[in-house]
Amino acid sequence: MLVLENITYLGKALALRNAQLDVLSSDLANASTPGYKATNLDFARALRSALAAPGDQLGDLSRYVRYERGNPVGLDGNSVSPQRVMMQITQTALDSEADETFGANAIQGMIDAINTSTVY
User: Fold this and answer.
1) Which residues, at least 6 apart from 8, have a Cβ–Cβ distance to it below 8 Å?
2) How many domains, the chain?
């Protein structure tokens, strides 16, 4: 049962990282849109909610999208900092890679355990 829970956790974490990348990509695409406010996904809260949901459901993620605070607002009312968004995209990609590596190593460990414990 623990193995299935870990796989479910990793699957939901990766799906949420993709959702976070979608939000950040939207910010970057709207960096010059007057009045656009920078947003990001509250990953920790979204993950807690997703883990409580049955199966592979993530639930409504829109309630976890928050306006970024502390960004300077330009004369046109836009608060997107392309450099900050690119750093957030990079961090999210690194987090995704770490999740994938952890998952791959866990699965390989299970395969190795099965192969070494097989009795012929």
Assistant:
1) 51, 56
2) 1
Question: Mind listing the pLDDT tens digit for each residue in 34-93?
Answer: 999 999 999 999 999 998 888 777 888 999 999 999 889 999 999 999 999 999 999 999
Look at the alpha carbons of 10, 13, 19, 25 in this order and tell me if their dihedral is positive or negative. negative
Dihedral-angle region of residue 94 (phi above 0 means left; psi in -120 to 50 means alpha; beta otherwise): alpha
Whole domain around residue 39: which residue ranges? 2-116
DSSP state at residue 55: T
Enter the tokens of residue 74.
Answer: 């330009």
pTM for the whole thing?
A: 0.85
C-alpha 3: how far from chain center? 21
Q: What percent of the chain has pLDDT over 70?
A: 93
Query: Which alpha helices (DSSP H) does 30-81 contain, by range?
Result: 43-52
What tokens were used for 4?
């299935």
